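Subject: Predicted fold for YCII-related domain-containing protein, 86 residues

User T.R. writes:
Posting the sequence so we have a shared reference for the thread.
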Amino acid sequence: MWIVELSFSDAPERLAARPAHREWLAGLHRTGVVRMAGPWAGDSGALIVFDVHDEAALERLLAADPYFTTPGVQVTARREWHPFLS
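User M.O. replies:
I've generated the structure tokens; pasting them so everyone works from the same file.
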């Protein structure tokens, strides 16, 4: 699994792009690729848990959604995660 952390600014482009991004995440959640996702309290950023096994798969997913390169959205961390409880 991979954890992706985002930070947000107040750029209006981010808010305009968010509905399509959330729809994309919801589709990946239905197939089990996204385990959970959501913004931090205060909307300063977000966390997404992707159930993929390698960084190349994660990079393909991030490249498929223009939200990750939208003004106001910054990917601050990509971390491989090995949970032992779920």
